[in-house]
Design goal:
about 120 residues
Length: about 120
């Protein structure tokens, strides 16, 4: 059964949105950690961020089940490595962290790997 190009593009967009959503899990975890360090177990934000982390994982788990039905597993997992790129983006934008040359080279290697897998799908 042939899949239209338009449908395939939508599948990839959904896959990458799902991965982007999952990349917020460590953001919520770090925010919870920051709150814990400030207020201990009594900080209400700790539980809020913990809830967001669990909700994020739940939404991603549902989306991932849909994604792996549409892709070969090797392709889906190769694309999942884009998570590292999103994580670095959030580290810079949300937490003000700096990217080193080594970080950028590593992200470039990940991106090239994903593109190679895409080419041979």
């Amino acid at each position: 059964m042939a899949v239209s190009k338009n449908s395939r593009v939508k599948d990839y967009i959904f896959l990458h949105i799902s991965i982007m959503i999952f990349s917020f899990t460590p953001v919520f975890t770090k925010m919870a950690s920051i709150e814990f360090n400030k207020n201990g177990i009594w900080g209400i934000k700790l539980y809020f961020f913990f809830f967001l982390m669990l909700l994020d994982c739940f939404i991603y788990a549902l989306a991932w089940q849909k994604n792996i039905q549409k892709f070969e597993l090797s392709v889906a997992y190769a694309n999942k490595s884009v998570y590292l790129i999103w994580s670095q983006i959030w580290a810079v934008l949300i937490f003000g962290e700096k990217l080193s040359i080594k970080n950028m080279i590593g992200l470039l290697v990940v991106l090239i790997g994903v593109l190679v897998v895409q080419k041979y799908e």
